[in-house]
Amino acid sequence: MAYCAIIGDIVRSREISDRQEIQERFIESVAWINRHFENHIASNFTITLGDEFEGLLTAPSLSYEIIKEIKKRMDPVQLVFGVGIGEMDTRFYKDTPLGSDGPAYHYARDMVNRAKNKKPSICYYSDSPEDQLINSLIFFIESCTNKQTKKQRQIIGLYESGLSQQEIADTVKIKQPSVSSHISSGLYHEITTAETSISEFLEKKYGL
Q1: pTM of the prediction?
Q2: pLDDT of 58-109, one tens digit each?
């Protein structure tokens, strides 16, 4: 069976001024993931080194969604992520990933180290030819996201929260066509298409 290990690490954590507030938000974010994805977690996500967490999934197709959720909850704090898909060599337990071992974790560790040294900030490895395609899509997504203006990010965030374009227009005091323009110029549709392609590919290959 293919498991999916995720390791995440806060970038330049020692330079963060309010470390206590960030640490509490980090703990809350990891706890939310454990609750929300409980049925698909083999070993609960756990903070291991203060500024790093790891966990093990039974459903690789949920990995990108989980990472995206953590990034949103920790914003503007930046993280890098390594994702490894593979087998496990040792017994593992639901309450903690500590002490378990196998290719899935080895791959994830290699990938988080790669993410620290080069783009993209999320790197996948499963020892398959598709890895490069996934990582290239992520690089495309991040390139598009980094080009967004502050206003585009604000409007896209409201749009993703479920508000209609008219509701967003009323909230930020602009016309509805301007909302549509900000969404389009922020490459929202291109980004979501790429993100959907990643999740759909992983689900088709590994199931849910």
Answers
A1: 0.90
A2: 999 999 999 999 999 998 889 999 999 998 887 777 776 666 778 999 999 9
Helix (H, G, I), strand (E, B) or coil at 166: helix
Residue in the block written with tokens 């896209």:
156
Domain boundaries, the chain: 3-130, 148-186
Rounded Cα distance, 20 and 172, in Å: 32
Q: Give the integer Cα–Cα distance in Å for 185 and 179.
A: 10
Q: For position 99, what pLDDT does the model report? A: 67
Neighbours of 112 (CB within 10 A): 25
Same fold, 3-130 and 148-186: no
| Nearest C-alpha neighbor of 107 from the set 192, 177, 196, 7 | 7
3-state SS, residue 51: coil
